[in-house]
Amino acid sequence: MGGDTEKISSASVSDRGGLEMSMLEISAPTEGRMPRRKKSWQEYEVVGKRIRSLRKSRDWSQIDLAHHAGLSASYLAEIERGGRNPTLETIINVAAALNVSAGFLVDGVQEDSAIGMETISRVWPSLSKSKREALSQLAVLLLCEPDTPPPSGNMRP
User: Fold this and answer.
1) What is the average pLDDT value for the chain, to the nearest integer?
2) pTM for the whole structure
3) Residue 13: helix, strand or coil by DSSP?
4) Which end of the chain is more exposed for a tag (fewer CB within 10 A), N or C?
5) Which of these, 51, 45, 33, 118, lies nearest to 82 by C-alpha position?
6) Domain ranges of the chain
7) Are 68 and 46 in contact (CB under 8 A)?
8) Residue 104: which H helix or E strand, with range?
């Protein structure tokens, strides 16, 4: 297991005013873990544009959305322009105000709260073989690109 430790460097100012560097080694499983990736300013801009689009689709002003989300209008304006990195709490509050999931604001994918992957995973073992096949076929149809025909096979229209 080559990736069992993670090294983290840290810097601090000593009491004599000098900069002290140290290397800290943490024993923690790192294998199979996705590396953290900072979002670029372009990604924040996309989130801001998505928020603006949803706000406008509801005919809300920035003041309206800011009020519903508990934010200042100026902070919301900066987020919409991509000039500010919204906190997780802010994303959750804006998503709740817009009645979408936080994941949709960040990734553009709306999860239906009534039937998510957790629900499917939970009920899958109790489904009959024919229901599993039908659900699998439905998933394939839903995941196809809009202009792409579904794969040929024993699927019925």
Assistant:
1) 71
2) 0.48
3) strand
4) C
5) 45
6) 1-31, 41-107, 114-157
7) no
8) helix 102-107
Helix (H) or strand (E) holding 140: helix 129-143
Summarised one tens digit per residue, pLDDT across range 95-149 is 889 988 888 888 776 655 445 566 666 777 888 888 888 877 777 666 655 555 5
CA 40 distance to own-chain centroid: 14
Q: 28-35: which pairs have CB atoms within 8 A and are 24 or more residues apart?
A: 28/4, 29/4, 30/3, 30/4, 30/5, 30/6, 31/1, 31/2, 31/3, 31/4
- Listing DSSP states for 50-79 in one string gives HHHHHHHHTT--HHHHHHHHT--HHHHHHH
Determine the Cα–Cα distance for residues 88 and 85; give it in Å rounded to an integer: 9
Burial 40-78 (b: 16+ CB within 10 A, else e): eeeebebbbebbbebbeeeebebeebbebbebeeebbbb
What is the topology classification, in CATH, of domain 41-107?
A: 434 Repressor (Amino-terminal Domain) (1.10.260)
Concatenating the DSSP letter of every residue in 24-43 gives: EEEE---TTPPPP-PPPHHH
Matching residue, tokens 């994303």: 91
